[in-house]
Amino acid sequence: MRALGGGARPPGKTSGGPANAAAPLLSVQALTVAYRVRTGLFSSQPLHALSAVTFNLEQRETLGVVGESGCGKSTLARAVLGLVAPASGRVRLESEDLSKLPPARMRTRRRIMQMVFQDPLASLNPRMTAGRIVAEPLGVFAPHLTPAERLARALDMLARTGLPQSAAHRYPHEFSGGQAQRIGIARALITEPRLLVCDEPVSALDVSVQAQILNLLADLRAGGRLAMLFITHDLSVARAVSDRVLVLYLGRIMEIAPAAQLFAAPRHPYTQGLLASAPPPTPQAARNWRPPTLAGEAPSPLSPPSGCVFRLRCRRAKPQCAEQVPPLETADDGRQVACIRWREG
Amino acid sequence: MWGARAMKEDAARGPWRRAAARFMQSRAAVAAAALLLFLALAAVCVPPLLPHTYDDIFWEHIKGAPAVSADGFHPFGFDVNGRDLFARTLLGLRVSLQIALLATAVAVAVGVAYGAIAGYFGGRLDEAMMRFVDILYALPYILFVILLMVIFGRHEILLYLGIGLLEWVTMARIVRGQTLSLREREFVEAARVAGLSPAAIIFRHITPNLAGPVVIYAALTIPEIILTESFLSYLGFGVQEPRTSLGTLISEGTDNLSVYPWILAFPGGVLFCVLLCMILIGDGLRDALDPRRRA
Amino acid sequence: MTEPLLSVRDLTVRYDDAAPVVDGLSFDLFPGEALAMVGESGSGKSQTWLAALGLLDAGARADGSVFYRGRNLLTLARGRLDALRGSDIALIFQDPMTALNPSMRLGSQLTEAPRRHRGLPASEARRRAADMLTLVGVPDAGQRLNAYPHELSGGLRQRAAFAMALLCEPKILIADEPTTALDATVQAQIIRLLADLRRRFSLTLAIVTHDLGVVAGLCERMLVMYAGREMESGPVEAVFAAPRHPYTAGLLASTPRIDRARPGVKLPMIPGAPPEPGETPADSCPFAPRCSKRIDVCTRQRPRPETIAPGRRVACHLHAGHGDTGHSGAAGAPPAAPDSTRRAWR
Q: What is the pLDDT of residues C209-237, one digit of tens each?
């Protein structure tokens, strides 16, 4: 089965790039993901983890995805990678509709999109050495290589992520969280992907180690043509890594904007509340910190409110907000907001 | 959590070697393993050294008491047909151990493959596969084996397979449960992202991580299999004359218990030793492979 | 200076005979203040408080002393310590579910301690519980008393845990990572709630956290721990403005900040990883292997916390002997940001 996929696409496609230079690397259109939740013996109910999510990711761009737990961030990562099947909508990678690919072909297409996981230790098979873990994807994407060549490449990649050669022969439990995350990154990069989906890659790490991993990702990005979909709940981390930021709430996009603009002048009331909730970075800032905190917590995604999903917590909600789902509008400056009142300031 | 230091000490070793090291720390399990190995070796190596075979009949010694003298070496005495009980017990031990190993191998192979496939794919396939297991559970399994024997004749191999095919159901359930939780682990997701096919994921990533529970359960299954075989032999559906198994020997022994106790005592003692060893080894393996569960 | 409410001297916590996880820690907790214990995983910050309250796991041993109102908590009889924990000192955990019994209704849990310790009648205890729930911001408090913990959201559970702690009218509230498990918007609510409760009940707060934002937002004094030892302590503003220990400086500098865009600019970082408990030799600075300012003596002699300015202590050989050389921003720590950057987008 592997020969079929490997033959269909010769590995190491390095020339050319995308068919159309103007096309985005990743284009997500009206993506909806629903899980069925059992509510009784014979009844079940759909839970919309993502509703009509639409966005593009350009070549070499880093798009930060922020939101609270249950907003669909992780589902987005998994849907983009084809790990969960969407209920509707499309994910196009380099203009190719991934949902239409047969499974074997999809597996070979995975070469250009890889993932870094939240829990670095859990993402490594405890019964494989670091060298085997990193080399394994080559068995799928570069089957013409001999085992020795694969290991050589794995060693090279481990070195690029800042691990010594000796690491290759050790097992995951022998590494610290930061080192394990480097192995996870090496495994993702060994296929020379164009898109790296990072699902909270630093949230399980110690504070003093987070910066190392963020810097490593920045280095890798600077050195190649890697685009990143960077999922995080930490706004400071999102600010440090993102070119643009996408704000999710209850499975819907609230706002997309370039990072500097979003953090300087958020337009959606939810983004405003979220940013104001972030603890102050310094005691000086804290002295005047009276966060206009959002009241309450996000409602259950099983019974989202009608119309705008945020309206129950929104201090600017009006009766119209309950009537229809606000569309994601593109403003003159290219920023996108899903709020009928954002123009009012 | 604070065992970090201990973990450091056995760093630079794989999970298997760490498990082996932990197993070696358990005195009871190591002693049991040594005793079992000794018994197994005896069962294989000693019979050729004896001057008589398991089916030589000593007419003058029917139901004779244990006797070791210049005339002959009969430490366990003689059975109801005047055959040397020592040789027969060794044969019975060998047959019982063979059944245990073969039937367990069948149970593990079928159970792991079945459970891992059902658990990994989930959904309707899982439902269907597991309902089938439920149905098998509901069948009176002894009748099932007896039926098999009646239809296909009484081959020993068939007996091994039959018992193995009974035991795989529980194994499949255990493996499926473990697979369901392994499937959600990030390293399995990582393998999917790495483009591995479902077969490669199941065999390279899921089954090696099932090893702990599978080995533990297999070690605890062996005594059960030996007992099942003994039971079937007791009913007369087991190993056929003149060959024998521990169960058959015990069955013969119970008939003569009050007058000729050695006919039961020796095979029974050996069976008891084997079962105790297996249980101790199973405990040791559980502690070694799954240290978190150790109380 | 006022008398400390709680005074910890030379506290050492060990598991079995392994190297200590808290190693010779001494500090005071003054009435009315909010002290932050800052550190990464394994730094011993939680173990310190568990030891002080006699809540260590079996197999752990605490030496030294923890004085509260003239009594050493480490030598206090089990029953009296339990009573003290129910009345004077309350503890809140990261996961509120650890404090709440999943199979008991909120009402019975919240009224249990007041009824036992203060002998309140059931109806009175229930009324007080409802009032307290309202006070900590639980809506429909009266009905919530009939709810089980799992029926509440994460934020409400943490509030209920606060209510349970406060019903005993403690003097000291120790909160171990009280916001870590919560969403960003709920974190802010809890921080604000803690600040309000502190004023209303004149509480003394001890916050255990790794989140520098919580420190800045809630506390006046901070104690930075690393590998079970005190690295630096002092007023939060002073430490943030001019960290004296290379570890503190590195920690502050390497934390991404929401108010500062760094397009293409890398974060300053500390190399390596925090040591496992017990990895540090007794006669060395635990941070030495990762420290960019390391000098010879760092691996030969253990630095002791020394007072370098009123209320400030640093355990670093670079500061040994000389009081206040302006060693600000040891590892290139950023100067404090002006408030204006934050207000711009509020």
A: 988 888 998 899 999 999 999 999 999 99
* 3-class secondary structure, B74: strand
Q: Which chain C residues are Cβ-neighbours of B11 within 8 angstroms? A: none
Local confidence band at B7 (pLDDT 50, 70, 90 cut-offs): very low
In a domain, B244, yes or no: yes
Bridge pairing between strands A336-337 and C22-29 = unpaired
The answer to whether the Cβ–Cβ distance between B2 and C21 falls below 8 Å is yes
Chain C positions in Cβ-Cβ contact with residue A287 (cut-off 8 Å): 339
Which of A179, B22, B6, A217 minimizes the C-alpha distance to A171? A179
DSSP A279: P
Average pLDDT over residues C254-261: 81
Say how many domains are in chain B: 1
| Separation CA B209–CA B184 (nearest Å) | 13
pLDDT tens column, B198-226: 999 998 899 888 888 888 888 888 888 88
Task: Output the pLDDT for position B291.
Answer: 55
B259 in reach of chain C (CB within 8 A): no
Q: How far is B205 from chain A (nearest CA, A)?
A: 7
Supply the Cα-derived Rg of chain B in whole angstroms.
23
Instruction: Look at residue B64 and tell me if it is in a domain.
Output: no
Instruction: Supply the ipTM of this predicted assembly.
Output: 0.80
A125 at B interface, C-beta within 8 A: yes
Q: A89-93, A214-218, B118-122, C76-80: lowest mean pLDDT where? A: C76-80
Q: Do C277 and B8 touch (CB under 8 A)?
A: no
Question: Distance (Å) from the C-alpha of residue B260 to the closest C-alpha of chain A?
Answer: 54
Range B12-18, long-range pairs (CB < 8 A, 24+ positions): B12/A169, B12/A170, B12/A174, B13/A171, B14/A127, B14/A129, B14/A171, B15/A126, B15/A127, B15/A171, B15/A173
Q: What is the pTM of this model?
A: 0.81
Q: Using CA atoms, how far apart are residues B264 and B281, in angstroms rounded to an integer? A: 26
**Does A83 contact B192 at a Cβ distance shorter than 8 Å?**
yes
- Residues A290 and A296: their CA atoms lie apart, in Å, by 17
Selecting from A124, A126, A174 the residue whose C-beta is nearest the C-beta of B12 gives A174
Nearest CA distance, A345 vs chain C (angstrom): 12
Residue among C181, C164, C182 at smallest CA distance from C173: C164
Report the C-alpha gap between B74 and C81 in whole angstroms: 71
Q: Residue B123: give the domain boundaries.
A: 33-44+84-293
Beta partners for residue A231, in sequence order: A65, A199
Distance from CA of B84 to the nearest CA of A (A): 50
Per the prediction, chain B carries an average pLDDT of 82
CA distance A74 to A79: 9
**Is residue B238 over pLDDT 80?**
no
Which residue out of A205, A214, A282 would a mutagenesis test of the C interface target, given it has the greatest number of C Cβ atoms within 10 Å? Answer: A282
Rounded to a whole number of angstroms, the distance from the CA of A233 to the nearest CA of chain C is 7
- Start-to-end Cα distance in chain A: 57
Residue A153 touches chain B, beta carbons under 8 Å:
no
Picking from C177, C269, C276 by the largest number of A CB atoms within 10 A of its own CB, the best residue to mutate is: C269
Domain of B226: which CATH number? 1.10.3720.10
B242 in a structural domain? yes
CA–CA separation, C292 vs B259, rounded Å? Answer: 87
Cα–Cα distances in angstroms (integers) from residue C239 to residues A200, B69, C123, C290, in the given order: 29, 92, 49, 20
B192 located within any domain? yes
Taking residue C10's Cβ as centre, other Cβ atoms within 10 Å add up to 11
Cβ-based contacts of C191 with chain A (< 8 Å): 279, 291
Which partners does chain A have (≥3 C-beta pairs < 8 Å)? B, C
Q: Do B4 and C276 touch (CB under 8 A)?
A: yes
Judged by a CB distance cut-off of 8 A, whether residue A74 touches chain B is no
- Cis omega (within 30 of 0) for bond into C4: no
